[in-house]
Model the fold of this input.
Amino acid sequence: MNVLVVGGAGYIGSHCVRQLVAAGHRPVVLDNFVYGHRGAVASRVKVYDGNLGDEAFVVRTLRDERIEVVMHFAAYCYVGESVTDPLKYYFNNVVATLHLLKAMLDAGVKKFVFSSTCATFGIPETLPIHENLPQAPINPYGQTKLDIENALKALAHANGLSFAAFRYFNAAGASEDGTIGEDHDPETHLIPVAIDVAVGKRPHLQLFGSDYPTPDGTCLRDYIHVDDLSRAHIAVFDRLGNPGAQLFFNLGTGTPTSNREVIRAVEKVTGRKVKVVEGPRRAGDPPALFADSKKAQGELGWKVKFPDIESTVATAWKWHSTHPNGYADRK
Ligand SMILES: NC(=O)c1ccc[n+]([C@@H]2O[C@H](COP(=O)([O-])OP(=O)(O)OC[C@H]3O[C@@H](n4cnc5c(N)ncnc54)[C@H](O)[C@@H]3O)[C@@H](O)[C@H]2O)c1
Done:
């Protein structure tokens, strides 16, 4: 398939581009490099530098490249910033995405794969989080993703768009060969931050809350490897053949892992100590979030290759230890 990977120079998108090539597809990347990295995309993959909200540019790209499916990874994703600067999030994650969808309909491209998030569920009523739980985001970031999920339902009904919306839990890890990985600026994700502390790039790791009602008092999250996420995106292609298909899948390992367990895994894998400073809880952090991914497993034949935190951290370490300055080391 000819696949337009919007946000394909970012963390998850670039891993998906690799998996698409490995599966025999032809990915084309569209990214404005506000956060993406040239070095994350192999030179043989064509890259269009531009904004996904530019309809004329997107229509041209879709036609020129004979695109059959659009995968949409591009978004702003800092929860805290979405609270302080919601317009930035609504304009990029909602308005620009609506322009992208309009461009797709104009160009006659009707298959869409969307990066949604477990943040659309807010504080879940029950755990693990399955697809039928009510969605009630508690921050603008999660709301922007839910807004697009709802727009997609309407477009499926009215325009025959077929789509899959994947609600990721915590994306983690790096390519198994260690050549591409996570390089966010600022970096807020626990594994790369803990690795930074282990190698002495940061003085300590701030633990937000150690009095949660969880076994060791720290938050429980579900760390799903980026390559596992990517494989689900490709596995869904067969299901997008029916016009108007509306597919929702929660993607996680299903295993809750506490912040302290992540820190221990980083210490074990790196062989170094991670200095921790315990602080108060952060507003809006639910005690536990982990997925029920049985639907993806059953319907897509999706299997998690990295079920435990240590194997995922090991891939992250392979990337970070060989690229201490991220993609700056690859120029
Ligand atoms: N990382 C996670 O743990 C996680 C969890 C749940 C959901 N998600 C979702 O997955 C997607 C990818 O996340 P990521 O961590 O790879 O983010 P990222 O910031 O690494 O990648 C996003 C990419 O989109 C590009 N981009 C942003 N706005 C654009 C625009 N208007 N036009 C063109 N390109 C644009 C950026 O330059 C970047 O390369 C996001 O939609 C995010 O909301 C991520």
